[in-house]
Amino acid sequence: MSLPNVLRLITLIAAGLLLGLLFKGCDAKQPPMQPKTLIIGMDGVQLQHYEQLGGDTHLQKRLFYGKAYAGGINGRASEQATISGPGWMTLLTGVWANKHGVITNNESLRVDPEFPSLFKRLRDALPNAYLSSVVNWSPINTAFLLEDAQGNDVRESGLSDEQVTARTLDILDKTPADFTFIQLDEPDEAGHASGFGPAYQFALREADDRLGRLLDKVEERASKHPQEDWLVIVCTDHGRDYWGSGHGGVTEQEKTVFIASNKPLNEELTQPSIPGDNPGPNNLYGYVAQTSVTPTVLRHMGLDLLPEWKLDGTPLLGATGVRKARAIEGDAKLLWNSDSQETVTIYKNDQIVANVPAYLQQWTDPQGMRQASDYVLELDDTPVAVRTRPASKPFVLEESSY
Asked: In this structure, what are the phi and psi dihedrals at residue 103, rounded to the nearest 5 degrees?
């Protein structure tokens, strides 16, 4: 190439670079991403038996998942029966039954308005959001959330699992579908009917097939609408007893559940953090708690997690804040797991009472814990709550209803 042509090429390149710098940042702005969430609830699924279906399940092939626990902490204020009413309400409110108030399957119970479900929180924050709840087991909609979710765009109950799936596919296909919760009940029904065995495994396979169809629809929609940011969560309300026919107690198997997602989740799901003072059976309490679903959804949907909500769960997206927050009332101590060099702000009954380096992992209330109180520990704009019971109150395990 001749020298004039070389000089001309250099000039053109320089001009191009200069224009690029001049117009950098002047591109048409991309529209903001639109968060969408689908929660797929599978009632009464024992994770161990689900995994026994093999590696070709949609759970194992297409989702990130981990073990979790239901039923609160045995012998502590958060303990609750491993049955459907308390389990589903904990998943949908982010607090244990000692706060949301649905302690049994009694259909006269309603969630405490102080601790509303995702439906009420999202409706208040996003008035135009399209909210749906489609369930097989009717009391979720017709009892516990009767008033709380009255603002839903869709609330349908008593459908078969196949009808729930078909209706959900229609919602995902034809509506904005901002937040959708569905509940499939047939695995639980199979367990109650015949315990673990071929019928239960068949019901799990059917549920997994339905999961696959729903994931396909979400992926199809995301492809057509690339501005939509989809979070899918799959979970269950409780495990099962040794035989698979019952549940409600405090055994490791009944308390073992799972949480799965189409998105990679943070270390609260992927890296168990064991509370040394009370690890639970086989370190179960080192895993994520059922209460984590609600704060995860709220954060994904663009809401700031507020201390005054007193949510018990650690979000699985973004910062975890402190992990495994807990109280030992007899010692008037709050404990948590963290190696952060930042400061934890501690609230007691909505008032700031202390600021403590997170790495200390404990704080003693100088006023004691003789009365029931609500504590909130906030780190990295991520609050997590603990409700205590009076230190002098003995714990009596009541018989759970199945």
From this structure: -95, -10
pLDDT digits (tens, 9 = 90+) for 64-96: 999 999 999 999 999 999 999 999 999 999 999
pLDDT at 279: 98
Rounded to whole angstroms, the Cα distance separating 254 from 273 reads 21
Quote the crossing angle between the two packed helices 161-174 and 198-224, to the nearest 10°: 10
CA separation for the pair 273, 268 (Å, rounded): 7
> Do 218 and 232 touch, CB atoms closer than 8 A?
yes
Evaluate whether 104 touches 401 at the Cβ level (below 8 Å).
Answer: yes
Structure tokens at 304: 């700031």
Nearest alpha carbon to residue 353 among 384, 321, 376: 376
Within 13 A of 8's CA, how many CA atoms are on the CB side? 5
Q: How far apart are CA 30 and CA 301, in angstroms?
A: 19
CA pair distance 388, 76, nearest whole angstrom: 8
Cα–Cα distance, 324 to 357 (Å, whole number):
16
User: Could you report how far apart the first and last alpha carbons of the chain are, in Å?
Assistant: 86
As a whole number of angstroms, the distance between CA 80 and CA 103 comes to 7
Beta bridge partners of 362: 335
Map tokens 């196949």 to a residue.
162
Q: Is 375 left (phi over 0), alpha (psi -120 to 50) or beta?
A: beta
Handedness of CA 358, 296, 61, 220 (dihedral sign): negative
Band (pLDDT 50/70/90 cuts) for residue 392 is low
Give the residue among 39, 71, 239, 244 at the shortest CA–CA distance from 135: 39
Measured from the Cβ of residue 231, the count of other Cβ atoms closer than 10 Å reads: 22
Residue-wise pLDDT tens digits, 2-31: 434 444 444 444 544 444 444 444 445 677
Average pLDDT over residues 379-401: 73
pLDDT at position 249 is 96
Contact in structure between 90 and 80 (CB atoms under 8 Å): yes
What mean pLDDT is reported for the chain?
92
**Radius of gyration over every alpha carbon of the chain, rounded to an integer in angstroms:** 24
Report the DSSP pairing between strands 228-235 and 333-337. unpaired
